[in-house]
Design goal:
Helix content is 37%, strand content 14%. It is built from 6 helices and 5 strands. Bound molecules: zinc ion.
Amino acid sequence: MEESNSTQWDEPRKNLFSIHKLDYARGKRPEVDCILCGICRKDPDVPNLMISETDLTVVSVNLYPYNPGHLMVFPKRHILSYEEMTKEEALEIHEAASKAITILKKLWNVQGFNLGYNIGKNAGGSIPHIHQHIVPRFPNEAGFLDVLANSRIVIYEPYEMQKEWIRIWKEFS
Ligand SMILES: [Zn+2]
């Protein structure tokens, strides 16, 4: 019947991201002094992709992911330079990064990672509040669709990714 044919195409495709939502997520950066501080205080004007928090640090999905699974870990204190980090903050960031890598290896079979800080505009830093990137790397990164076709990663709309990570993060604790 014609009707069933048309619903087949009208139905949302669960494995593909919602372009509408992604546009919203990637819209103009909110007018706040610091996006990361906004995430920490759960400012309603800041898209909040937090996965987990402690007294000192936050783990979050990256709003502008380089790859699916791109996370950020950062201290709650608004510090701009690496040298200002305390041992306690550094240890927590290390532990969160280790946990993220363990999860990505086990669940998504990720075998390559870039970890690091972009400090200062000359280094590509766009948010001055210090934060560590955890970027999973995949063979054949020609595009997201290639990644999708060859792996188990099917969720990469940022808010869907956040939901999934919140669940996984609790399971692995
Ligand atoms: Zn800040």
